[in-house]
Specification:
Shape: globular
Distance between the termini: 13 Å
Number of strands: 7
Strand order of the largest sheet: 4-6-5
Number of helices: 5
Order of helices and strands: EHEHHEEHEEEH
Helix content: 40-55%
Strand content: 15-25%
Structural class: alpha+beta
Length: about 190
């Protein structure tokens, strides 16, 4: 088995949501477990795998949780919500992959890494937020969000949504290149 092939597997946040009746964490865990069976197949075939994931619906769920809890509990900044979802989804993937390895007798370490990204401060995405986040809402609620500092827009006749910046990620940060190299060496 060669150990020099590297594959990056991108799992979209929506891929963890089977349908509207299965948005809960337990259902997302089941979707992750199924995905990790295929990733383990890749490992058996000699690939070193880096798994990256989206988090769109999960960010929306946390935003909604914030809305329901406010003002009883403080709200959470968007960057912290991003880290929260990275940690939670990373944990689900690491646990499921580790369990799949144990079932198959594969002796490999699994690590989940929470990262930040380097972006170009002149990226036009900063000037005009356009990526819809969270659920759809009414114009009245949108006005409240605007008062809280959000950019809000009407979304294709489906309602109003908060928006954030679409930006081009130049590189991950938070771990030195040597750390990434060590993580990709299975021995």
């Amino acid at each position: 088995m060669t150990q020099n092939k590297v594959a990056v597997v991108a799992v979209g946040g929506n891929a963890l949501i089977i349908d509207k009746q299965h948005e809960d964490v337990a259902s997302q865990v089941k979707a992750v477990e199924e995905t990790c069976k295929h990733i383990a197949d890749m490992i058996v075939q000699g690939w070193n795998v880096v798994v990256t994931h989206g988090n769109g619906p999960q960010v929306g769920f946390i935003l909604r949780r914030n809305e329901l809890a406010y003002p009883e509990v403080h709200s959470t900044p968007l960057d912290v919500i991003g880290a929260d979802t990275q940690g939670a989804i990373g944990y689900m993937i690491a646990r499921a992959l580790d369990n799949e390895f144990k079932k198959r007798g594969i002796k490999r370490d699994v690590a989940a890494v929470v990262t930040q990204v380097l972006v170009d401060r002149n990226d036009p995405g900063f000037q005009r937020p356009s990526k819809g986040i969270g659920g759809f809402t009414t114009r009245a609620k949108a006005i409240e969000f605007e008062k809280q500092g959000w950019t809000v827009r009407e979304d294709a006749g489906r309602g109003w949504r908060r928006t954030t910046r679409r930006r081009v990620c130049l590189a991950p940060t938070g771990a030195a290149p040597e750390t990434w190299q060590r993580l990709l060496r299975p021995e």
